[in-house]
Amino acid sequence: MDKLITVYHGSKQIIEVPIFGLGRKNNDFGLGFYCTESIDLAKEWAVSSLSDGFANRYTLDTEYLNILNLNSPDYTILNWVAVLVDHRLFSIKTPVARRAKQYLIEHFGVNVNAYDLITGYRADDSYFDYAEAFLNNTITVEQLSRAMQLGKLGEQIVIKSKFAFSKIKYEGFETAEKDMYYVLRKARDDEANQNYLDILEEESDGLFIQDIIRGGISNDNPRIPRNISE
Question: What's the predicted TM-score (pTM) here?
Fold first, then answer.
C-alpha cells in the first residue's frame, strides 16, 4: 500500500469531516469509517433502488499507521469470518451455530481494535448470507472460500483509530446515480447468487463447521483456505 492513498466513502450524504466514534458497532469490523479505493464500488454502495447517493473522496496518509490486512496470506478465511461473527448480527438457527460462533471467535478471532486501519472484504448482500450458511453448517469452508470469490467481491478500507481519523483529508465528491449504479450492484449480486447455486450442486467432502469444532482444527491447518483474495 502506498503511503498516501485516495479512498472513497459511499453514502447518502456528503461527509466533509468524518468523525471518530460515530457509526454502527455491528458493521463488519465494528465501529469505524468504511471506505474503498474503488470509486465505482463506493457509488454502488451509496445508492438504493429509490435514491441517488454520493462517493465522498479523501486522501489518507497511511504512514505510521498500524495496518491489519485480512486479505494477506497471514490470515485464513476463518479469521475474516470470526471478525464478522464477533460484530455482525447473524441468524443463529441451530445449537451448532451457537457453538460455531464461540469457537470461531476463540480460535480464529482477531482484535481489530488494536489497529489504526483494516483492509478486508466486505460482507455485502449475498456474501453475508454465505458466511451465515457456513456458520449454520450448511456449506463447507471450501465452498465458502469459493463463494467469497464470486461476483468480484469488493475490498474495503476501514479507518478505526482516532489517530487514523486525523490522517484523512476531504477532497470532494461525485454523485452516484441510482439508475446506473443500483443496476450494477444488483447485477453483481445476481451473478454471485447464480454461481453460488452452482457450487451447491457440486459434491463436497470438505470441512463443515461442525467438523472443525469436533476436530479442534486451528488456524495453521492446511485445509483452511488462506488469503480469500486468491
Answer: 0.89
